[in-house]
Task: inverse folding
């Protein structure tokens, strides 16, 4: 304890230099934290993602569409709590450049269960379920095109009406927000009944079903039961949980993980070189002062540990600052690219611990040699006024 | 002595004594080398992905999709509309006198990834007559082309690399029937996404489809584009939109390339800040070690500005070997590396413009890093510096 003032004055002996080292170390560890945290955080977000929400696709995706009649059959599979369906339409609004995706669903409460992040006022959702041509639009689209409650929006869609016309009209009865995947933010939600009665081709087909399992631990069993239910039928299914789909997407990042590690390695190597050389120079400059300490009766081990503590304090404090900055950046970084983002990334504790441990190691490596050399110097030859070194 | 002469003399002294100060010099070189190596290799991904994507693009090739669709998977072209496209004047004629217009219908099929075993979906294109004429870059390297009307398909080399079950003779289940892989092909620029072709008629009959996804035409000359687009626009009931192949390819790859470039500049930028801070500290260390010498020089008549200039040039000259070392590391380790992020395979491209960019960054780091130390060297009071040192 009594050494604290000594260590403190040692740290700020050359304040400018210390500040620069702290900044440099902080920058390095904020990058370390952002990169490593992105990877670990994404893995954790996937592990935490809903395993009880199942997506039922056709076994060959667009190849053979699912049928609307399968909805009740899926609903009767034991362990299924709620099921809804989705049909997506590619549309444009006032010209080919303004692309709008319309998703047709069954307007009942099961929809809100299968999409927990979907937020809409209960009154608006009720209005939506009572109006055939009603639509819920995302806040993003509403502000982009100035849509309001009660607006009629004409959309031109790839899916045609039974009279051959690609023009569809919807009445806005609600505006929703969606926390989570940004991919869902520019969306119009419509009634599947209206779409299905009105469309020229593909009537009665469904792109995929969304299912909630009543017991998350039984989700895999439920998924298998759904697929077995339709095995060897004309519309075979393939059921994955949201978590499995997220895992598949994570695997597709592939060798980028190697590059991230290479970058982290380069960052730490550059930092080690920098701190080590600065420590060497700093300690060399202080040899006369250290000799005074020795002359006053400090043992060489004490001097060594004083120097070590100084460097450790600087390095760990700077790393902590950098990691704190990284945990602020990280949740923002998850939102950069809509299709590749994993929502809800926050700084994992393991990365903070690893970062602090690495900062300790770097401090140890960079101070060990010069401090050890210094502690072995002959006091009489290195006192102030002597020709040092 | 003129300022220029003073400057040159100072620079000669600075550079002549580099060997005497290995530690700070090493810090600058290593720090900048790491920053430049990371910047170049990260940006080499974006460049490589772009080169790969645009590699097979032809100026006389035009892609027709339904209005609003961004890619073939979102597009729907009725058979009558596809027939109308063939009759538009300006399309090159094949050896049999028919216009070179290739109709494709795409389906997505489920495959298993080799790395990790996750299921994922890829696109299979059913191609009508004229595949090889409209896409002459297809070279069958093993096996043969699929035959019309049969359950056969061909795959490019990326499929077998990324997914299970794409060797010649392997069978792929689609809608309950086995489809045989009968050939492997290369495009002139290898890599990219896994590409599969089968016969359009066979696919459409197996899946009970009656519409295409995309029509690709070869024009008589690139100049015919405007009149082709005008002819299509003159017939709005077709609901079709024609675009240069390059536009469609660029739009489809823009998200991946934007993400890669953003990551490159973001990470490279943070590394550059770190390297700059390291350079500032090292240059301070160099200047501090020479304050007495510089004070003597000023006492005998050297002006401040040549001193500032000489130190700035010194730090830039120290940055240069760092830049070259970093470029060499990037080229050696990553120059030939092939990556497959998000199922797109491409080689990193360490190009000359990237190296030039790296050198510019390094010079900027050198100049900014040398600025404050240079000012200190020039402004330290001569008497104080002489007394203290």
Result:
């Amino acid at each position: 304890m009594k050494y604290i003032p000594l260590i403190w004055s040692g740290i700020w002996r050359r304040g400018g230099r210390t500040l620069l080292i702290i900044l440099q170390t902080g920058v390095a560890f904020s990058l370390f934290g952002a990169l490593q945290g992105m990877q670990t955080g994404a893995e954790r977000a996937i592990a935490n993602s809903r395993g009880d929400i199942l997506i039922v696709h056709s076994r060959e995706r667009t190849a053979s569409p699912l049928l609307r009649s399968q909805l009740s059959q899926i609903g009767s599979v034991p362990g299924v709590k709620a099921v809804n369906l989705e049909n997506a339409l590619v549309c444009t609004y006032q010209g080919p450049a303004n692309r709008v995706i319309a998703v047709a669903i069954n307007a009942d409460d099961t929809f809100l269960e299968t999409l927990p992040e979907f937020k809409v006022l209960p009154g608006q959702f009720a209005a939506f379920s009572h109006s055939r041509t009603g639509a819920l639009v995302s806040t993003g689209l509403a502000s982009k095109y100035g849509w309001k409650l009660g607006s009629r929006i004409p959309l031109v869609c790839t899916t045609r009406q039974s009279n051959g016309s690609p023009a569809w009209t919807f009445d806005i009865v609600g505006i929703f927000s969606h926390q989570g995947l940004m991919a869902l933010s520019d969306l119009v939600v419509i009634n599947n009944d209206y779409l299905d009665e009105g469309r020229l081709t593909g009537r009665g087909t469904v792109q995929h079903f969304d299912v909630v399992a009543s017991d998350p631990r039984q989700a895999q069993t439920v998924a298998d039961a759904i697929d077995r239910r339709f095995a060897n039928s004309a519309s075979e299914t393939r059921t994955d949980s949201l978590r499995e789909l997220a895992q598949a997407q994570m695997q597709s990042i592939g060798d980028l993980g190697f590059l991230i590690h290479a970058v982290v390695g380069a960052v730490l190597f550059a930092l080690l070189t920098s701190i080590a050389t600065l420590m060497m120079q700093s300690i060399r400059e202080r040899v006369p002062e250290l000799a005074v300490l020795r002359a006053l009766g400090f043992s060489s081990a004490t001097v060594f540990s004083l120097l070590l503590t100084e460097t450790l304090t600087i390095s760990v404090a700077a790393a902590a600052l950098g990691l704190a900055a990284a945990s602020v950046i990280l949740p923002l970084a998850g939102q950069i690219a809509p299709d590749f983002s994993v929502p809800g990334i926050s700084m994992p504790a393991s990365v903070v611990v690893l970062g602090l441990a690495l900062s300790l190691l770097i401090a140890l490596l960079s101070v060990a040699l010069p401090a050890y050399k210094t502690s072995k110097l002959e006091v009489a030859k290195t006192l102030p006024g002597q020709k040092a070194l | 002595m003129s300022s220029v002469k003073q400057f040159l003399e100072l620079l000669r002294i600075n550079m002549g004594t580099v060997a005497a100060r290995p530690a700070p010099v090493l810090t600058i070189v290593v720090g900048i080398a790491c920053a430049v190596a990371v910047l170049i290799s990260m940006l080499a991904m974006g460049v490589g992905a772009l080169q790969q994507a645009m590699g097979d693009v032809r100026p006389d090739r035009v892609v027709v999709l339904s209005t609003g669709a961004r890619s073939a998977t979102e597009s729907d072209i009725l058979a009558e509309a596809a027939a109308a496209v063939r009759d538009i004047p300006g399309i090159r004629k094949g050896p049999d006198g028919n216009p070179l217009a290739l109709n494709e219908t795409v389906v997505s099929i489920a495959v298993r990834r080799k790395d990790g075993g996750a299921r994922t979906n890829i696109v299979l294109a059913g191609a009508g007559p004229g595949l090889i004429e409209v896409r002459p870059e297809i070279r069958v390297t093993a096996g043969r082309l699929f035959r019309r009307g049969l359950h056969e398909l061909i795959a490019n080399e990326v499929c077998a690399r990324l997914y299970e079950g794409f060797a010649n003779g392997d069978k792929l289940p689609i809608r309950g029937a086995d489809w045989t892989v009968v050939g492997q092909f290369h495009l002139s620029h290898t890599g990219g996404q896994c590409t599969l072709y089968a016969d359009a008629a066979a696919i459409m009959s197996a899946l009970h489809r009656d519409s295409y996804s995309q029509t690709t035409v070869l024009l008589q000359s690139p100049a015919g584009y405007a009149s082709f687009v005008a002819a299509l626009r003159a017939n709005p009931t077709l609901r079709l939109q024609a675009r240069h192949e390059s536009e469609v390819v660029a739009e489809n790859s823009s998200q991946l390339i934007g993400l890669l470039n953003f990551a490159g500049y973001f990470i490279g930028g943070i590394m550059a800040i770190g390297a700059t801070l390291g350079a500032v500290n090292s240059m301070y260390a160099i200047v501090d070690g020479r304050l007495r010498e510089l004070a003597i020089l000023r006492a005998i008549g050297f002006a401040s500005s040549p001193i500032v200039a000489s130190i700035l040039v010194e730090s830039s000259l120290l940055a240069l070997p760092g830049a070259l070392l970093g470029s060499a590391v990037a080229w050696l380790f990553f120059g030939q590396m092939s990556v497959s992020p998000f199922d797109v395979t491409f080689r990193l491209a360490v190009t000359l413009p990237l190296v030039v960019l790296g050198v510019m960054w390094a010079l900027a780091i050198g100049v900014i890093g040398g600025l404050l130390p240079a000012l200190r060297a020039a402004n330290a009071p001569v008497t104080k510096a002489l007394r203290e040192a």
